[in-house]
Design brief:
Largest sheet: 6 strands, mixed
CATH superfamily of the largest domain: PhyR, sigma-like (SL) domain
Oligomer: single chain
Radius of gyration: 25 Å
Structural class: alpha+beta
CATH topology of the largest domain: Butyryl-CoA Dehydrogenase, subunit A, domain 3
CATH architecture of the largest domain: Up-down Bundle
Number of helices: 11
Distance between the termini: 42 Å
Number of strands: 14
Shape: globular
CATH class of the largest domain: Mainly Alpha
């Protein structure tokens, strides 16, 4: 996104951000500070945020910023520093003007009811009951699982129903805030530019330090690598499901890029670019597999899983052992996921050995499998 897109979306998102932050923090001043920090983060990373997924990104920055602040406030040694830093950020602390008197609003009783919840349960309750988000998207925002989100929602609802303010409170579809004001765009843009410059300097320093630390490891790996015909590659490491935005390109291997849209899976290899595979239709679990030659003697394997249960792990079985693939999914509840593996699976005469693909959920239950392919 460019600066004009960020400015337009900041004006559009501001009332909803203020309402959500107000329910999360229970403090109007803290809510505005939290919403400004979320928009600042979006401005600082605007070039890497797709326009279609900007609202998910800024909402994620808001929620995770709230959880970080909650953790800091629970640390005894950090409370004094946090109070001092907040006083330094307030405008009246720098200018000498007294703060505006507090004006009660209709969200005060509801904020009092939410105060009885832990920070994570409070976030789940606000996002589900007042923002109307599904469990899968809340799980992506909190970096959690849909099952954990459902458990937090049930326990939060039990606590809230015991409070009289909850029964009279507006739920999904209520107005964000009465008479919303425009966001402080100049301050947000300046803070975003400052954060972007600071992040660049930090990234450059960390890259240099990591390169210096990895030199001995690379030399040792090169000296210990076999070159005979029986040499096999190490299976891919087991990783969690990664939530990506629509159009976000993932480096899936040497010269291989993979990206997801609402229509399905897209990928490019050194030998063929801009390939596409649809997600398919139907309620029964389906699992597909495609094989593409990559650089050298490597093979790029990928496919689509579609089903009612959430995919957690993909395992590839060959004559030489088992390999764990990586899994990508879109934010929200798409009902499908994409898996991929880039590894050197040994075969005869440069051909790929027979491969069987199995899909599992988080409990280890087998969701689907493919017939042996080669």
């Amino acid at each position: 996104m460019d600066e004009h897109d960020v400015t337009t979306r900041a004006r559009k998102y501001w009332p909803r951000l203020i309402r959500t932050a107000r329910l999360l923090t229970g403090d109007p001043a803290g809510a505005e500070s939290l919403a400004r920090a979320a928009l600042t983060e979006m401005y600082a990373r605007r070039r890497g945020v797709p326009s279609d997924d900007a609202e998910f990104y800024v909402r994620r920055a808001l929620v995770r910023g709230y959880l970080r602040r909650s953790r800091s406030e629970r640390l005894p040694f950090a409370r004094g520093h946090l109070r001092r830093s907040r006083r330094q950020r307030l405008p009246f602390a720098r200018s000498g003007h007294a703060p505006k008197s507090y004006v009660p609003d209709e969200l005060d009783p509801l904020a009092e009811a939410l105060a009885a919840l832990s920070p994570r349960r409070r976030a789940v309750a606000v996002l589900h009951h007042w923002d109307g988000l599904p469990h899968r998207e809340i799980a992506a925002l909190l970096d959690s699982s849909p099952g954990a989100v459902k458990a937090h929602r049930r326990r939060a609802l039990k606590t809230l129903r015991a409070h009289p303010a909850y029964n009279d409170a507006p739920h999904i579809g209520s107005p964000p805030v009465p008479d919303p004001v425009l966001p402080p765009l100049p301050a947000i843009e300046e803070a975003g530019r400052t954060r972007r410059r600071r992040r660049r300097r930090t990234t450059a320093a960390l890259t240099t330090a990591c390169a210096l630390l990895l030199v001995p490891l690379v030399l040792g790996a090169v000296q210990g690598t076999g070159s005979g015909p029986n040499t096999t590659s190490t299976p891919a490491a087991r990783t969690a499901v990664r939530v990506v935005t629509a159009g976000e390109r993932v480096a899936a291997g040497p010269g291989v890029e993979l990206w997801l849209t609402k229509d399905g899976k897209h990928w490019s290899t050194p030998k063929q670019s801009n390939q596409f595979h649809p997600t398919g239709e139907g309620k029964s679990p389906t699992l597909t597999v495609q094989s593409d030659p990559a650089s050298g003697e490597r093979h790029f394997l990928s496919g689509v899983y579609r089903g009612a249960r959430e995919l957690s792990r993909i395992e590839l079985t060959t004559d030489d052992g088992e390999f764990t693939a990586r899994v990508l999914t879109l934010a929200g509840t798409p009902g499908w996921s994409v898996w991929f593996a880039d590894t050197q699976l040994p075969g005869s005469k440069g051909l790929l050995d027979p491969v069987t693909v199995k899909a599992y959920d988080s409990t280890g239950k087998l969701l689907a499998r493919t017939a042996t392919t080669s």
